[in-house]
C-alpha cells in the first residue's frame, strides 16, 4: 500500500466524520493488518505514538507529518512516550555500512545526545539537500583571501595595508550607511591564521551541524552571529572596523559546546573532555590574539585595528539562540515560547543598534577615523 492510499484509508475508515482525531485501538488494528511500505524507524515511531497516547486518540495531522518526515513535535512526543515500549539496537552495532553511511553515523554521534534521535537521523538521512551553505561560505572566504593576498603580496596582517581597508567588503564606521558591510565583512580576514582557524571550524563543526539540523536553521544561526558581531562593534567599539567570519563561527561553536555540556551524559563522541578543553583553549587564544592586535598593534597603522567584540557577541548568540536550535532537533521552533522570546530580544537589539548607528555617533561626538 502506498502512502497516499494509506492516508485516504485512514481518513475514510477511521475518521469518517472528519473530526481530526483517530481512536488508538482502531489505528493499531490498521497498522497490524495492512502492509505498510514505510521505513522501519517511521513504523517504530508510529507504534510509539499510538500506543502511548493517554487520551485514547491520535491527531490525524500529526500522523501525516510524522510519516511524511516533516519536522514536527509529534516526533519528539513519539520518542518520549514510546521509549519504554520500543526495543532498539544500538546504532554502533550496525554492520555492513558503506563509507557515506558510516560518516552519517559518525555525525549522528558527534551532534545528537540521544540514541533514539541518532537512529532516527541515521535512517531518514538523505543527501538531498546537501550541506552546501557552510561549504560555499568557506570557499568564498578562501577565494577572497587569495585575491587580496595576491594583490597586496601579503598573507598575514593584511589589515595594515591601506588598500585592504579600502575594500567594499570591510565594515568601517565611516561607511555605516553602506548596509551590506554589516554582512560582507565575514568574507575578509586579517591573515592566513584567522582564515585557517575559521575555515577549519566551519568545516569540522558547521558542516555536521548543517547535516543534522538543516541549511535554514544553521544559516540563520551563522548569519545572526555575523550581524550581531558588526552591530555590537558599532555600539561598544565605535571607532574600530571589523573583518572575519568569527561572529558566525563563534555562534556555531558556542552553541555546539553548550549543547554538549548540557547533554554531557548522553553525548557519545570520543575523547569529549579532551576535545572540549582543546576547543575552549583555541577559541580563547583566538580572542586573545584579536585583543592584542586591537590594542597593541605590532606594526604602525593608519587607524584602529579590527575589533574583537564580534567574537564575544557571536558566542552570546550561540549560547542563546543557537542552543535552543540545537536542542530542538525534529521539533518546531515556532511552537516554543522560548524561541519567540529570543527572536523578540534579537529584534529589539537590532532596532536599538540601528537607532544607535543613526544618532549616537553625532550625539556623543565620536571622532571616527577617516574612511579609507
Question: Which SSEs are present, and which pair or pack?
Answer:
Elements: H1 3-14, E1 21-23, H2 24-33, H3 40-51, E2 57-59, H4 60-67, H5 73-82, H6 99-111, H7 115-124, H8 132-152, H9 162-165, H10 181-184, H11 192-213, H12 215-236, H13 246-262, H14 272-295, H15 309-326, H16 337-364
Antiparallel strand pairs: 1-2
Pfam family, one: Rhomboid
EC number: 3.4.21.105
GO cellular component, one term: membrane
What does this structure look like?
This protein is mainly alpha-helical and 372 residues long. It has a domain of 233 residues: Rhomboid-like fold. The chain is 63% helix and 2% strand. The chain is built from 16 helices and 2 strands. Strands 1-2 form a two-stranded antiparallel sheet. Helix 6 crosses helix 11 and helix 8 runs antiparallel to helix 11. Belongs to the peptidase S54 family. May be involved in regulated intramembrane proteolysis and the subsequent release of functional polypeptides from their membrane anchors. Its main location: membrane. It is found in: Membrane. It comes from Paramormyrops kingsleyae.
Summarize this, please?
One of its GO terms (molecular function) is serine-type endopeptidase activity. The chain crosses the membrane at residues 132-151, 182-203, 215-235, 247-265, 277-295, 307-326, 338-359. Helices cover 63% and strands 2% of the residues.
Amino acid at each position: 500500500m502506498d502512502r497516499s492510499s494509506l492516508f485516504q484509508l485512514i481518513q475514510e475508515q477511521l475518521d469518517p466524520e472528519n473530526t481530526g482525531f483517530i481512536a488508538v485501538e482502531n489505528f493499531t488494528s490498521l497498522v497490524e493488518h495492512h502492509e505498510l511500505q514505510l521505513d522501519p524507524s517511521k513504523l517504530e515511531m508510529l507504534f510509539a505514538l499510538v500506543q502511548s497516547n493517554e487520551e485514547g486518540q491520535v491527531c490525524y495531522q500529526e500522523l501525516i507529518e510524522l510519516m511524511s518526515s516533516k519536522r514536527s513535535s509529534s516526533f519528539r512526543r513519539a520518542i518520549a512516550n514510546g521509549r519504554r515500549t520500543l526495543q532498539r539496537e544500538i546504532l554502533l552495532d550496525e554492520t555492513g555500512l558503506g563509507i557515506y553511511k558510516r560518516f552519517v553515523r559518525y555525525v549522528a554521534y558527534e551532534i545528537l545526545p540521544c540514541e533514539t534521535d541518532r537512529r532516527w537521523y541515521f535512517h531518514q538521512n538523505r543527501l538531498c539537500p546537501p550541506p552546501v551553505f557552510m561549504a560555499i561560505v568557506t570557499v568564498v572566504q578562501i577565494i577572497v583571501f587569495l585575491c587580496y593576498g595576491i594583490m597586496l603580496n601579503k598573507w598575514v596582517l593584511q589589515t595594515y595595508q591601506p588598500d585592504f581597508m579600502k575594500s567594499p567588503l570591510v565594515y568601517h564606521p565611516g561607511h555605516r550607511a553602506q548596509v551590506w558591510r554589516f554582512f560582507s565583512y565575514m568574507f575578509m580576514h586579517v591573515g592566513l591564521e584567522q582564515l585557517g582557524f575559521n575555515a577549519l571550524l566551519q568545516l569540522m563543526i558547521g558542516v555536521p551541524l548543517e547535516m543534522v539540523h538543516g541549511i535554514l536553521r544553521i544559516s540563520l544561526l551563522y548569519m545572526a552571529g555575523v550581524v550581531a558581531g558588526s552591530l555590537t562593534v558599532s555600539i561598544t567599539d565605535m571607532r574600530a572596523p571589523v573583518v572575519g567570519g568569527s561572529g558566525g563561527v563563534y555562534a556555531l561553536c558556542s552553541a555546539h559546546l553548550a549543547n554538549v555540556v548540557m547533554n554531557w551524559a548522553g553525548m557519545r563522541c570520543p575523547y569529549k573532555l579532551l576535545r572540549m578543553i582543546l576547543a575552549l583553549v583555541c577559541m580563547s587564544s583566538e580572542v586573545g590574539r584579536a585583543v592584542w592586535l586591537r590594542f597593541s598593534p605590532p606594526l604602525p597603522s593608519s587607524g584602529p585595528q579590527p575589533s574583537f567584540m564580534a567574537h564575544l557577541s557571536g558566542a552570546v548568540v550561540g549560547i542563546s539562540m543557537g542552543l535552543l536550535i540545537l536542542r530542538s532537533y525534529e521539533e518546531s521552533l515556532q511552537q516554543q515560547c522560548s524561541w519567540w522570546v529570543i527572536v523578540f530580544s534579537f529584534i529589539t537589539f537590532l532596532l536599538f543598534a540601528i537607532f544607535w548607528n543613526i544618532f549616537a555617533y553625532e550625539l556623543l561626538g565620536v571622532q571616527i577615523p577617516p574612511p579609507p
